[in-house]
Amino acid sequence: MLIIQSCYKPDEEWAPNVSEICERTGSTCGFIERSYTYAGRGRHYYNQYCAKSVADVCKMIKCAKPAPFSEIIVYGHCGGPELGAENPGISFGTGKPRFDATSLNVKCFLAIEQALAKDGVLTLCSCGYRPASPDDAKKWDQSLQEMANYLGRTVCACPGVSNLSADEGCICVGGAKPVCKSPEKEK
Questions:
Q1: pLDDT tens digit string along 6-17?
Q2: Cα–Cα–Cα angle for 75, 98, 31, nearest 5°?
């Protein structure tokens, strides 16, 4: 399993320690190697363990080993209705594109295709804010379906509050079941 955490509000008091979960479960935590030059003393390197953008998520997926993974979990805040979130996804902050069905480009698609087993699952582990009205819920579900069709993999998200657990991976709080969509067969 590969777990990637958004940098958007990762230190909330309820947020789990993702590095600890990776260590306890033997999962891979996504990271990017970054560098900077320090006052003429050469290049210094460090690992960034959370994603600040859709591009970061895609780079973490592309660089993660050992692939293929049975599951990739992208964990973080969804952004909520206050940031205009109307479909399942992960936020990186106000004004930044979310990781969702509308943000996947070809490079990201290829990274996921190579890193996620053909029968693998991509899980968007964030609060879902799935609308209560049937018509709006259908649009929410369709967004997951579009992502599954595009990736050729099953995609899951919680309809309400979710959290990350070392024992169970992404869990939907309150006993809710995740909404999962498998790719539709071409007709």
A1: 888 756 666 677
A2: 45
